[in-house]
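Q: what sequence does this backbone want?
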């Protein structure tokens, strides 16, 4: 395992085992069997590792699939992507539960929006939304996704397929109808910028 990956996995394990405030850079280095110099080659802080894990778990899988398909064919892979992302969260639920309890729901949502937002923003721009509309739609979509994951922590009777279905039905499709783009899934219309976004003032 490469040093960067070892650091991330060591941190993930420590979050589950140790109170977050007591996790130190030295402790992470010890668990990953790397030097502090090596740690700072890749990360500046614990927040950087949190961001990197969000990238690994939620952003890169989508980027990989999206990179293999034309934009107009991404819709056909929506369920695959959503099940993949929810399965990853399910497999690491103890880590995310401890993380959310440590940094708070808003802290998790903010981190999620920051890391995933650019990918969604670019997709909305490619669909023809203006810069401000794409930013707004992306932030709202990412915040809703993150909030749904936090909600899932209190409703573990649902499996990852059920959560993917709920996400598609109540977040992606609804927001797609509001923006008139429906970047991810079924429903929605053309590219008129309908609903909430149509009410935004012109730039």
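A:
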């Amino acid at each position: 395992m490469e040093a960067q990956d070892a650091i991330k996995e060591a941190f993930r394990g420590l979050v589950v085992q140790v109170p977050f405030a007591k996790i130190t850079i030295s402790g992470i280095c010890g668990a990953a069997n790397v030097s502090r110099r090596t740690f700072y080659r890749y990360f500046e802080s614990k927040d950087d590792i949190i961001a990197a894990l969000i990238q690994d778990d939620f952003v890169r899988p989508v980027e990989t699939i999206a990179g293999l398909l034309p934009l107009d064919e991404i819709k056909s892979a929506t369920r695959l992507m959503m099940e993949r992302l929810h399965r990853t969260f399910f497999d690491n639920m103890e880590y995310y539960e401890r993380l959310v309890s440590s940094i708070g729901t808003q802290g998790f949502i903010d981190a999620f929006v920051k890391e995933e937002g650019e990918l969604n923003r670019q997709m909305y721009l490619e669909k023809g939304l203006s810069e401000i509309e794409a930013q707004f739609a992306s932030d709202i979509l990412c915040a809703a996704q993150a909030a749904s994951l936090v909600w899932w922590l209190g409703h573990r009777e649902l499996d990852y397929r059920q959560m993917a279905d709920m996400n598609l039905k109540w977040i992606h499709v609804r927001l797609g109808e509001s923006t008139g783009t429906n970047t991810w899934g079924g429903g929605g219309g053309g590219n008129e910028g309908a609903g909430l976004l149509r009410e935004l003032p012109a730039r």
